[in-house]
Amino acid sequence: MPKRTDIRKIFIIGSGPIVIGQACEFDYSGTQACKALREEGYEVVLANSNPATIMTDPETADRTYIEPLTVEVLERIIARERPDALLPTVGGQTGLNLAVDLAEAGILDTYGCELIGARLPAIKKAEDRGLFKEAMLRCGCEVPESLVVHSLEEAREFGAALNYEAIIRPAFTLGGSGAGVSFNREEFDRVVKWGLELSPIHEILVEESVLGWKEYELEVMRDLNDNVVIICSIENFDPMGIHTGDSITVAPAQTLTDKEYQVMRDAAIVIIREIGVDTGGSNIQFAVHPDTGRMVVIEMNPRVSRSSALASKATGFPIAKIAAKLAVGYSLDEIPNDITRETPASFEPTIDYCVTKIPRWAFEKFPGADNVLTVQMKSVGEAMSIGRTFKESLQKGLRSLEIGRFGLGADGKDRPLTGNPDPREEKEAILRAIRIPRPDRIFQVARAFRLGAAEEEVYDATKIDPWFLRNLREIIEEEAALREAGPGDPAVLRRAKEFGFSDHQLGSLWGLDPMDVRRLRKEHGITATYKLVDTCAAEFEAYTPYYYSTYSDEDEVRPSTRDKIMILGGGPNRIGQGIEFDYCCVHAAFALKEDGFETIMVNSNPETVSTDYDTSDRLYFEPVTLEDVLNICDREQPRGVIVQFGGQTPLNLADALWKAGVPVIGTTPASIARAEDRKEFRELVEKLQLLQPPNDTATSIEEAREVAARIGYPVVVRPSFVLGGRAMEIVYDQASLDRYMGEAVSASPERPILIDRFLENAIEIDVDALCDGHDVVIGGIMQHIEEAGVHSGDSACILPPHDLPAEIIEEIKTQTRALARELNVVGLMNIQYAVQNHDIYVLEVNPRASRTVPFVSKATGVPLAKLAARVMAGKTLRELGVTEDPWPAYVSAKEVVLPFIKFPGVDILLGPEMRSTGEVMGIDSSMGLAFAKSQVAAGNRIPMSGTVFLSLNDRDKNDMGSLGQDLVDLGFSLMATHGTAEFLQQQGIAVQLVTKVGEERPHIVDRIINGEVQWIINTPLGGASKSDGREIRRTALERSLPIMTTLSAARAAVMGIRAMRQGNTSVRSLQEYHGKR
């Protein structure tokens, strides 16, 4: 069928900020959909609150609204734009849920906007647990025995019939939020209550436990002519009971017989037809009993999902792009395959390699969090690898994670579990440990095999399929053989590389430096070869250069004589290094392609736009490690390599690449090291006669005590060369310092600990700048809402600054220019300052892209990363026509999104170590309105009335100024514990006294639970104070009450409430804001 001509304008709702369970895979899918629809001549209107995405670039859609994703705001956009259709399937669970809300509220009907791709009945049938169960039984597919309930009382009777061994799944949630497993009545009641709270429709499915069964997924597409194709089969390495987002997964499925696969395939086709998804992609999950082969359907996502991104990258089949074209009327046989150009999209992809996805977690950021993996997703990112075999693919995937491992052990990082010299005792301890799935279980399984455990013993403990266990055992056996064989035999070397062993592992086994292993390999002619990802197992010619490495006789890289520039990506998402850096890499590829360079992207993250096959001229889906990057450089001989855009991952390779003769362009590694090295940087600051907090370095507890005593407490302590405030802390006394030095020195091996005087009551400022080695342009100056001491990545910020004196701003600009020139920066630079009593202190300088670049670019309309890439490739700022500092006529606010709800028991206090997973942006005419929008977008709805509970530390009581009176003037009632209440009463402010936790009841937590409090302002200081408020903060979090832990955030909220009351927020597109610049 031809495309529809009765619709002209299509509305797409994005997925909002990056959260656990919904990451940047939806930037990838949304960007693809926007591009595909505009290619077909449709006008695209996009709404999304996340500034860090390519999707929200003003060039991606015709009209881009960076606004809170609420029904009220979306209705205003629809009323303004009058779209003909809404595509609900490319914005994750957030976009889908909002589309349902808009439809059910009658808003789409009011404005004549139809759902395309998936209609309301189909969405509800797939997402509503009860309707889905009925549909599966109707079409002859078996599901686990289950019951849909809406209350604890309903659930208990069915739970008893299952002997309380159940899995609980809430309806309409993402990443398994609210899901849980129970084995007894107490656990059952707790998980049911939690699931009912988190489901937006207060509905859960209680189902029989299928823990230990094998888990599979199929990615399915359907068109309006009822053609259905299976894009990819995916098998979970881990059995049922671990969320698929937290499981290692493998494509294609490895342990299904052809008959079993056909049965599953037929079921998937029946299911997508029964649910009634008109067009596009769906993800269907199955469980198979390992002994009987009984197959049950677990769930279906009637949209592009997290697994869709993996399937797209694994096969080269652009699921989101095809889904968008199907939604406007095309059939699968009418859409050409971009990679082969000969086959249509109705050809099912075939792959002749193995793809492995491995999750990455961030438990180290949340002390006290339970790291047991269950049916609720906890990982923050993932890496994908491609190899000719599962063994090769797995080892590549493990070294892609950037957790200090270089494969399945044999890298000098294995540690005994017990320290017991008896290997039998150690083996038994490991076999007990691997019964509980944790992030390091795969390494413990490998250790079990090293200690002689049998496959049957490991299977009994883990229920991991014997096929996978056999492959792990064979890797361990090869490891032992390699240790004995030594490096002299070329056949041994080649076999090791075919098993996926890295040069680092081989060096560890043979006592050699990894670079010596590399030289030895090359002498023997054992070099990486590159194969194409072509969707068709080489049956047709592939036109898109999308490569993976292996060790074989044939290399498929096409020769080219064009000038090439290689961009190193950031690897898997993690807290501190996320989508913002991928944004910079993508912009570099776009800009340099426009300038005529052949661009090469190297990355291992399947969720990103950077690993889309058409973002750069050549894509290498490879680990971002020294070995793998050097192998690609050997093959491609780039004119330049960009390491400054992908975050700390490629930056850590800069010096070694430079020494290996790789042409690193932009700011030199020597200048980067000068900014990172504490002693050299202090000399630089002194040379420029700038201020810096007193600081020094220490490599032992004794040195640290001496430095801290000399500088004076409180001090900020952190390892050098880290990102995201990893292991950073403010310590107030020697006992805390001793504890830190004992626990955190290993956070950055072979690097000293940095110790700085902590500046209290200081305002923190972030500056992004561009420099071409001579001229400097200040891209943006951001004022943090939280004071110094909260990691910049966790602080809300305002651009331009809202209450800094003009002379301070000018002095900051002057100091930024001086630092950029002294460091000879070529490209981007980020500087953090603290302003205390009109003194400006330089906190740190990063001569690279920062996580604020996308926000600043959206706030000012100046594409900083594109300009920086062109400067690094040789252009000057004057040649590019960029000579003035942008200063927008409107205000932008950035707020962060924190994942504490996923980690029960973890305190939500912010500090110098970064914990946020994503960010949102609010834009409006004033600071108050912009900040208020950012709070709504982040899910922190500031109340307009009610009771505010205040509990302030003694320092903040003296600094609170008019905050209490401001709240009363706005009509709020105040409630406080004794100390804060007494202080407020001394100011003549009426306040209701409430007791602390542990005192007379009802205490403050009782009042919160009873709904008597609408807003909490709690600013603890010191260990005892933090402990007192912990239960308050956790109770507020679990009830979605707004809570602020700094005075500055509370004051900003007061400004927001005033602004909201004085006038309506505006709803305008980014293109309109930028036109006003």
Pick out its properties:
7-stranded antiparallel β-sheet; 19% strand; 1077 residues; alpha/beta; 38 helices
What's the Cα radius of gyration?
A: 28 Å
Which bin fits the share of residues in helices?
25-40%
The coarse silhouette is globular
Q: Number of helix segments? A: 38
Stretches where pLDDT is under 50 for at least 5 consecutive residues are: none
| Cα separation of the termini | 44 Å
The chain-level mean pLDDT equals 91
> Which class of secondary structure composition applies to the elements?
alpha/beta
Describe this protein's structure:
With 1077 residues, the chain is an alpha/beta fold. The protein has 38 helices and 38 strands. The strands form 7 sheets. A 7-stranded antiparallel beta sheet has the order 14-13-10-11-12-15-16, sandwiched between helices. The chain has a 7-stranded antiparallel beta sheet with strand order 31-30-27-28-29-32-33, with helices on both faces. β35, α34 (978-986) and β36 (992-993) form a beta-alpha-beta unit. α1 crosses α11, α14 (441-450) packs across α16 and α15 packs across α16 (466-485). The protein is globular, with a radius of gyration of 28 Å. The two termini are 44 Å apart. The model has no long low-confidence stretch (mean pLDDT 91).
